[in-house]
Structures are given as C-alpha cells and as structure tokens.
Amino acid sequence: MGIISVELLADALREKLKGRNYDSESIEKLAEYIMGFFGFEDRVIDNMLSNEDRDMFYFLEDNGILRSGFEDTTLEKGKPWRIHYWILNKDEIVRAATHSKKQKETEFDSAYHLYMNPDLWKRGEDKDEH
Question: For 6-114, CATH number?
C-alpha cells in the first residue's frame, strides 16, 4: 500500500468522526498533527510520544485509524526488551476516505439534480403547458 497523504487521512477522519462535532478545520489540523509523527513511515515508536500524544493515539486506535503492535528484542546484556509501536491502519484509512468521498459525490449529485432540473424552477402555470 502507498503513502497516506494528509488529505487522505483527513477524509478518513471526517468519515470516522462524523457526528462528533469536529469541524473541517479541526479535522485537517488533526490529520497534519498525526502525519507530523509518521511522515513517510507507517509506524512510530511509542516511547517518543508525550502522555497527551499517547492519549490521542489511543483515541485514534479506538476509531480504527491506528493499530498498536510490539516487538521483543534482547539487549546486549541479555535483558529482554519490548518495543511498542503505533501503526497507520492504511487499509481502514483508505476504506473510510473512499466512503467519505463517495458520500460527498452523492450529496453533490443530489444537490445538482435538485437545482439543475428546469421543471422544478417553473411556476405552476408554466408546468401545465408541458
């Protein structure tokens, strides 16, 4: 799967967070905030996050945008060590963004047909002539 862009992530967030009083500007800022951690990578190490960032990542995990994972390794002195990661859930991001775009297109088509249908703009007596 390719790189997740800020725009794609914002579309996915719009879909995932609709009905929760997030305006478009807040969603775009959130997408930029998230991508600031990931850049061109698809995972980040948990220990680089502040507590506030981690709370946001748990929220995003609950909404399907992120997944968590871990890797066990052994340090030089033989001590086991576990590294926790946050991973972009690319499949779900693309699915949600695609659904969001289809919904926007449907809304546009409905509005287009409503306002561009000439019969709807005729007055009562004009309609009887046709």
Answer: 1.10.10
